Amino acid sequence: MVWIEKHKRSDEVVSAYVVWRLGGGRDGERQFETFSAGTTEQNLARAEGFKKMVVSAGSYWPDGWVKGEGFVRPRGSDPTVEAPAFPVIGEEYVRQIVDITPGQRRKYLSQVRTLARTEIRGVSPFQRSVAMIGEQDIRAWLIDWDRALKTKANYHGLMYGIFSYAVERGFLTANPCARTAPKRRRVKESQAELRFLSEDEFVTVTAKAEGYSYSAADLVRVTAGTGLRFGEITALWVSDIDLRNRTIRVNKAWKRVGENGETEIPSWLKKQLRDKHKMRQHYLGNPKTPKSRRTVSISEGIAEILEKLVDGKAANDFVFVSPTGLPVHNSDFYTQVWQPLTDELVEDGIAPFRFHDLRHTHVSWLIVGGAPLPHIQARLGHESITTTIDTYGHLLPAGDELISDIVDAVLSGKQIRPPLHLLRGGVDAAVA
């Protein structure tokens, strides 16, 4: 029998100890391995992974594992000796990654299992020993796997990490993924164009949404008016809304739990959570990136909508809730509201769009209205201005007429006014 013991330290972090008796018998010498270098969630995840390896090894130490250090195998050792199957080394790699959320770890493990089930050209290459998978197998998979190029690029990134780990462990001398990554340009070209709602389409959408639950029309208006992600806007509490200063504070978002219900809730938030903040297969955690934690200004019209939604609620109540008063679950909202709403809109001649396209629509409004890209970047919570430009740069007006006016102004001896005047006054304000 193998079990995990947990001990909370003075810093509130839980250290995990995998404990068993050598060989599994009662008379076997007691063994243990300690996992305490990371956060509570990381320590427990690593301990769970190590526990499975001990069980697989018959209650003995996994081959190549050194107590307190992990797997130690010299580089350059024979890559065909005792090389594990791809699913085994894949799971081992995912379980030792430090800087990912429980939900991301769960997703990666699912991707490893998907690859193991994938058949390419009559064989299942990712069920074989990791040492028996070559560059030709990776290329065949990239060519024949019936998935979008963006999906294959995401899987390829995980595979690259797995094979790099296998190289470090000494099972391989080279990474078979090293020269096969899909070009970023091709991945971008393969993706569908962003969908933006016109002003008339938006009016139709909100009018149709009035007939649905979940305060659907208001949810659509506030999302399109702020650019928040679904996981952010449905995580808003009343206390996050400042009607006086007309701002919204984004400091949390819904995250998926790990495979065994693991969460990664920041300590400041954990103290405030109550039963009403629970949702199946999800938990409240940090937003997507550090810069996603932000304050967003809101218009007077959005403030009026929010004022109605928060009226009579407690500070830690959700702004948007289901018809039963529970947090808004993405799959419930999709099946009960979004899918029937979009089906109805298609009948009215409006092309299908995703809820996330409301965020894109918000940006299109800002760009057409002349909002500077750095301001849009901060508003969206993008880590880099490059992300904003790569995603929305094509919406910027070509400005051929404006450019011509600026050049002619200089040639004729006129002065060019600062950009601020341009934003306020339009093309005619570019020149004196």
CATH top level assignment of the largest domain: Mainly Alpha
Cα distance spanning the termini: 83 Å
Indicate the proportion of strand residues. Answer: 5-15%
Summarize model confidence as the mean pLDDT: 87
The major β-sheet equals: 3 strands, antiparallel
Per CATH, the superfamily of the largest domain is: Tyrosine recombinase, N-terminal domain
Task: Count the beta strands.
Answer: 10
Task: List the SSEs and their pairings.
Blueprint: E1 2-8, E2 14-21, E3 30-35, H1 40-56, E4 65-66, E5 70-71, H2 86-96, H3 102-117, H4 135-144, H5 149-168, H6 184-190, H7 199-209, H8 216-226, H9 230-233, E6 241-242, E7 247-250, E8 253-256, H10 267-270, E9 282-285, E10 294-297, H11 300-310, H12 330-347, H13 357-368, H14 373-380, H15 385-392, H16 400-411, H17 419-425
Antiparallel strand pairs: 1-2, 2-3, 4-5, 6-7, 7-10, 8-9
Helix pairs in contact: 1-2, 2-3, 2-5, 7-8, 7-12, 8-13, 14-15
Keywords: DNA recombination, DNA-binding
Protein name: Site-specific recombinase XerD
InterPro entries: DNA_brk_join_enz (IPR011010), Integrase-like_cat_sf (IPR013762), Integrase_catalytic (IPR002104), Integrase_recombinase_N (IPR010998), Tyrosine_recombinase_XerCD (IPR050090)
Describe the protein.
The chain has 432 residues and is mostly helical. The chain folds into three domains: 2-188, Tyrosine recombinase, N-terminal domain (DNA polymerase, domain 1, Orthogonal Bundle); 199-363, Orthogonal Bundle (hpI Integrase, Chain A); 400-430, no CATH class. The protein has 17 helices and ten strands. The strands form four sheets. The protein has a three-stranded antiparallel β-sheet, covered by helices on one side. It has a three-stranded antiparallel β-sheet with strand order 6-7-10, with no helix packed on it. A two-stranded antiparallel sheet has the order 4-5. Strand 1 (2-8) and strand 2 form a beta hairpin.
